[in-house]
């Protein structure tokens, strides 16, 4: 069946090759050594790592849509290592464990570049760097806790930059201050995930697209029921991003909330005039972060977090269609770089983010079913974290005792979310509080105690300054 392009976001329409066809859905009875549910970054990296370690393994992926059809094909393409979450990592993993995870996430930049070259993936990878900035006075110093924790262990991935330095870097004087790291990059998320898919197929991974899991049989061996087939495996890996909420044991650990993106047509002349042709990707310091970047072909991509909230197990919802937050996305550009807000958006979209309380992913074995593994909760930072997520899940699946299976991110599900519909209603209240708190910051006004307490309940995102958030 020809791969559907219509109705998909710009990244996937641009990445799906002419004449490309979906892998056939699962039909009838099948077996595998290891089955993976989910064909996004995490599932594909896990499959590739398993085949790298043991090429003779039979590895099968079942994907409800196409590989990359979920969050992996519709994110902002920002490759941000885990240094901005170091304080939270340190509390969870200890100092040495946190350094291991953060350094591994920085090495991902080299790995992506090398993997792209080895597999002829035109991923549009660029080491642009990242400016974490303050777009109003009240955001200044948002990074202080992270920098203090890093300084205490002798790590300095960020350097403070003044308003004048930022203006020279970006061509905009709208940021009050910030910190800059060279250890960050951008890529084309659609081309990247579709390239990983081709690499997995070449490695001998069997992929069944348009094959949703309708039931997980928690036996020994576990079995995956699909509309037209059944797959038995020695181990099952759940790499389902926001759709992890369809698994009752996993649901309490995440809140699914949308991130919205938009993109312009090519405007290289404008980028040259604005001084932003090859500049760092930018994010502000709101709780619901907004940010923007340029692309290889001279487009402007901007995005905002804190959008639509998922309910229950998402019930098949794919977060499809055009974003309803184009005005918010344009306002993000207007605040940060007014010249970039001029051209029209040719497309916008939204996708699910599986946010944990800490902003850090979690991995482990499903309670009562040790042959079923989980890996989810990437909190909008999956491009840089899923390569070593694949290593963690591969080590768990193969019962390998190493630095990955013993990582502090391997832990039980943290049941911090209430059941539905309380979860959904409460999330709407918290979202309103965060948006109001962020808006008051631009008016240089302090939120009241109730608003402050509600906003503090928001889960971690691409930046997490501490684990026990108050």
Strand content: 15-25%
The number of helices is 11
Largest sheet: 8 strands, mixed
Percentage of helical residues?
Answer: 25-40%
Rg on CA atoms, Å: 21 Å
Q: Explain this structure to me?
A:
- With 470 residues, the protein is of the alpha/beta class.
- 31% of the residues lie in helices and 21% in strands.
- It is built from eleven helices and 18 strands.
- It has helices at residues 10-15, 41-53, 86-118, 144-152, 163-170, 189-202, 268-274, 326-336, 382-397, 422-442, 449-455; strands spanning 28-37, 59-62, 78-79, 130-134, 159-161, 177-181, 185-186, 206-208, 215-217, 223-226, 229-238, 255-264, 281-283, 290-294, 300-304, 345-355, 362-366, 369-376.
- The strands form three sheets. Strands 1, 2, 8, 9, 10, 11, 17 and 18 form an eight-stranded mixed sheet that branches. The chain has an eight-stranded mixed sheet with strand order 5-6-4-13-14-15-12-16.
- A hairpin with a 2-residue loop joins β10 and β11 (229-238).
- α2 crosses α9.
- The radius of gyration is 21 Å and the shape is globular.
- The model has no long low-confidence stretch (mean pLDDT 94).
Keywords:
470 residues, alpha/beta, eight-stranded mixed sheet, 11 helices, 31% helix, globular
Q: Any chance you could write out the topology, listing elements then pairs?
A:
Blueprint: H1 10-15, E1 28-37, H2 41-53, E2 59-62, E3 78-79, H3 86-118, E4 130-134, H4 144-152, E5 159-161, H5 163-170, E6 177-181, E7 185-186, H6 189-202, E8 206-208, E9 215-217, E10 223-226, E11 229-238, E12 255-264, H7 268-274, E13 281-283, E14 290-294, E15 300-304, H8 326-336, E16 345-355, E17 362-366, E18 369-376, H9 382-397, H10 422-442, H11 449-455
Parallel strand pairs: 1-2, 1-11, 2-8, 4-13, 11-18
Antiparallel strand pairs: 3-7, 4-6, 5-6, 9-10, 10-11, 12-15, 12-16, 13-14, 14-15, 17-18
Helix pairs in contact: 2-6, 2-9, 3-9, 10-11
């Amino acid at each position: 069946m020809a791969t559907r392009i219509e109705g998909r976001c710009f990244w996937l329409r641009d990445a799906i090759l002419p004449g490309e066809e979906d892998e056939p859905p699962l039909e009838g009875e099948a077996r595998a050594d290891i089955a993976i549910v989910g064909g996004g970054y995490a599932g594909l990296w896990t499959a590739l790592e398993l085949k790298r370690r043991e090429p003779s393994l039979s590895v099968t992926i079942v994907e409800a849509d196409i590989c990359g059809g979920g969050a992996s094909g519709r994110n902002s393409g920002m490759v941000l290592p885990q240094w901005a979450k170091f304080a939270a990592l340190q509390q969870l993993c200890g100092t040495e464990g946190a350094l291991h995870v953060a350094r591994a996430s920085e090495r991902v930049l080299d790995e992506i570049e090398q993997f792209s070259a080895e597999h002829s993936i035109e991923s549009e990878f660029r080491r642009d760097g990242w400016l974490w900035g303050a777009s109003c006075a009240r955001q200044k110093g948002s990074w202080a806790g992270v920098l203090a924790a890093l300084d205490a262990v002798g790590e300095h991935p960020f350097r403070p930059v003044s308003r004048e330095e930022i203006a020279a870097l970006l061509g905009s004087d709208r940021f009050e201050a910030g910190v800059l790291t060279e250890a960050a990059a951008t890529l084309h998320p659609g081309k990247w995930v579709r390239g990983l898919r081709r690499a997995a197929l070449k490695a001998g991974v069997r992929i069944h697209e348009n094959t949703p899991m309708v039931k997980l049989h928690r036996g020994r061996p576990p079995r995956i029921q699909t509309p037209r087939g059944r797959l038995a495996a020695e181990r099952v890996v759940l790499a389902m991003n926001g759709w992890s909420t369809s698994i009752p044991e996993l649901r309490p650990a995440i809140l699914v909330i949308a991130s919205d993106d938009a993109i312009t047509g090519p405007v290289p002349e404008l980028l040259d005039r604005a001084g932003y042709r090859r500049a760092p990707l930018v994010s502000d310091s709101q709780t619901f972060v907004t940010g923007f970047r340029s692309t290889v072909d001279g487009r402007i991509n901007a995005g905002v977090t804190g959008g639509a909230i998922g309910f229950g197990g998402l019930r098949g919802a794919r977060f499809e269609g055009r974003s309803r937050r184009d005005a918010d996305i344009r306002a993000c550009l207007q605040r940060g770089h007014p010249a970039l807000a001029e051209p029209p958006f040719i497309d916008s979209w939204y996708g699910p983010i599986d946010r944990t309380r800490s902003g850090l992913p979690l991995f482990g074995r499903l309670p009562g079913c040790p042959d079923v593994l989980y890996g989810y909760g990437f909190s909008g930072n999956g491009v840089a974290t899923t390569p070593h997520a694949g290593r963690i899940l591969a080590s768990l699946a193969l019962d390998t005792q190493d630095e990955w299976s013993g990582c502090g991110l391997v832990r039980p599900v943290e049941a911090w979310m209430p059941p539905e519909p309380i979860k959904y209603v409460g999330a709407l209240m918290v979202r309103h509080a965060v948006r109001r708190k962020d808006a008051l910051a631009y008016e240089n006004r302090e939120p009241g105690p109730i608003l402050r307490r509600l906003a503090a309940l928001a889960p971690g995102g691409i930046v997490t300054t501490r684990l026990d958030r108050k």
